[in-house]
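Illustration 12: Carbohydrate binding module (Family 35).
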Amino acid sequence: MRKRTTIVPLLALLGLVLPAPATAQPNGTVTSGQARFQILSPTLIRSEFAGDRVFENQATYNVVNRTFPRTAYSTRTENGWLVITTSAMTLRYRVGSGPFRADNIELKTGSTTASPWRRVVCATGQLCEAEDQHREGMLVAADHAGHTGWGFVAGFSYVNNGVTATVRATSAGRHRVVVRYANGQGGDGKHENRTLGLSVDGQAPRQITLPRTANWDDWQQVATEVDLSAGEHRVSLTRGAGDSGNVNVDSLALLAAGQAYPTTRAVDDCRFGTSCEAENGVIGGPAKIADEHAGHAGTGFVAELRGGTLLTQRVSSVPAAGTYPVVLRYANGVGGDGKHEPRTVFLNGQAITLPTTANWATWATATAQVPLPAGTSDLNVTCPDSGCHVNLDTVGVNNSAQHIALGGYRRSLDGYTGTNGDPKLYPGLMYRDGWYALDDTSSALRNGTPRADRGAQPYQDGYVFGYGQDYKTALGDLATLTGGPKLLPRWAYGVWYSEYIDRTAADFRDRILPAFRQHGVPLDVLVVDTDFKGHNLWNGWRMDSSKFPDPQGFLDWAHGEGLHSTLNIHPSIQGDDPDFARAQATAKGKLAKGNCANCYLFDWGDPDQLRAYVELHSKMPTDFWWLDWCCDGSGSSLRGVTPDTWINEQYSKMGSFAFSRGFGSLQAGGYSGAGPLPTGPWAEKRTTLHFTGDTSSTWGVLKGTIGYTSAEGVSTGMSNISHDIGGHNDTTGLRGSEQYLDNGQLRYTTKMPDDMYARWVQLGAFQPITRLHSNHGDRLPWQYGPAAQASATKFLNLRERLVPYLYTLAEQANRTGVPMVRPAWLEHPGSPEAYSTVDSQFLLGQDVLVAPITTPGDVGETRVWFPPGSQWTDYFTGRVYQGGTWATVSAGWDTMPVFLRSGGILVERTNNVANDAKNPANELTVHVTAGAKGEFTLYEDKGKRTRIKQSGDVLTVQSPAFSKKKWTVVVHEADGSTRTVQGSGRPVISLRAPR
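Figure caption equivalent — predicted structure in token form:
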């Protein structure tokens, strides 16, 4: 006889407690019953709801610091609402109204009104989309047909992967929990019945079986019975240690006796005065949710509305009956009927004409005046029988502001070719309408321990950013809250040589480094790729003694030459590896077979397996490790911790920093398609140099790199971003300069066209990390023609000279959260051009504007926008451009469009050097523009700082070590000429031109 699960009505007593009045405390905390608000800064408020009134004060894995300077704020209760006001925003919460949702908490910042919290509660008989509920360690995917909503929860491929739905039983008694799932051939290669654990309100799970389905497009249902009290409950589907997982879950439903599986989706309200996502409404008829066109808000849009479509938004909090503007954001390209013409939709029966847009990636808005009753009602969008043939993105009710992401991130750019469409970026902190809610509910505590389970009690923990256009302050808040981007050792900002090709210690010592020195090219970091390994070139755990007979001696040699090195690691081990038995014993027999030939995987969330994994590194001396993912599948079962972030933190403890992909998990979407996890990208930057993966050597990828670096930086706070300079995979077939054996076959390396190589190295010189890399491809200057060689040599030496400046920007990023490479809108938020040029130019710090050439030819050109408020001087030619203007700038291979802001100060080494480690920066050149005012604080190792201040014709250098350095000043004149002034041995240097 099947046992029933009985849920104790824990909320019964709490229902008798009257809402407590709001109380302000001297530490910036305001408590209102089960809600607590901590005012951290004028632009940042923590919002926490605890049904059991037990608030969390410990640091979490994301949030490591809540100590901010004291912030002035006011608080009052008005018409039943708690109102908290700072100088930047107002947050309102309806007293005693329960957990945060669209209709009871409101943010106002500038001209924007928003509902920062969305909470979908699925009542008995409602469809509960899995993607709307809390997920643990899993991706929302949409790559199989037949799902409802905008996707499904994919995988359950690791222990503790799960989804938890909040349901509301409308009456007490027996219910069925019905799960809609697909069970095809899993990542483990098996096609069999699978199991998951089903738990209610944190009680011990019962195992449920999900029979196999025909394929991943075949969705079936499985049911189990539970006894529930009336009210809210938490229903969890989780892969436990004894479960097989490897299924996809589309939705679930809580059903009373006799109820059929529903089609009506549970949704949260669309609050009056806000802009709401169309895909979050109730969708009926043939319309589908899609995300394939760029520029949409939220997770997607409702795609090409057709006859019979019904989109319903439940509008709440309408203050009084009346007629209000409703704003539709839409795209109207060439429809499925082959026509490109104005289309008609109906809003509550009122016909609205939507003019054409240029294409499906171009979005426009249309406004209609719609009568609405007071309180809550439905807003319905319908189509004529002939169809609307438009995509609908958002619905704004008495609000025209659009919550459009600025920037975005990915775990990797693997597979990006520059010709197959732009990679989909996932939104982070920055939005054009100036607010963001960082939901930290799912994050573990700082030490990786999951938060305590609260049973049926609701709990929410999040941080509401209301920054308006003060984007830099938002980044500063994020850095204070979650930790700043790691400051790498200074040598890491020099020149890296990396190539996926078999190299030996003798190759590096006798051929490669001497060639760098012979050709006058600097080098700081040697990357030793995977072929150094013995036993197995992919996931071996000892250095091949025939290639590296003395591993420690190789590292000592590198240090003696002023170099640092890293070794490439893949996170699995062969069952016949000489170190496998010891690793399995240390792991207490828990290493599991992976979906690769005779390989075993690690669960880094298990202390024994983590210890076994770390110990494998002990026989391979290096400065830091390159964790290079692919297909292996190791991960972490820790709840509330992003697997990438967790293992990268362990690597940072083993070396100077982690060098890896980040933000996600191989289990959450695979090698190149990994999406974001609920824990978010917030902790990654504290330990990691982000390697963006294997792209292709095309002009399109070169161009795409420009916008991606700054997009990731501003959306996550990550500053240390490393691309393959030159791309990874060959696309041209041009024969290179070296031979190698591939399975006994003699092959040649490949190379890029000379113009592409020269331009890519130019761009790399101004990226956070300059790492020359390829897949068996030439990346060294002397492997190209004379002009390309001269160009690459020049720019790699410039990169090395700029290390003092770059190291200073990296230290600034660590303190302020503002990344080294940034979009112009970060400094010029009021200029529309700053947003439209993110894919063609960027700022390196606030003073240097870089607009790379990304087209073939001996001479290239690009259209440059010069930010207002200053003149901009071409670093190479001296030509001066007025701020607030556009110009077409051309450049041969010996120059590129790089500009210094008037009042900006650029510091570089005076002379070319072979590396940073062996060459203290004792001779420095300062670039300034004549007559300007500005200052710059140069950061050096061990916290030393030199303040450089220009006031017209006087430059002042304030440094304890001033006398130990030789200072040269290059003065850029308004006529394009330059003057060089030698420091006089005194802290005050006259820049006055001789008469």
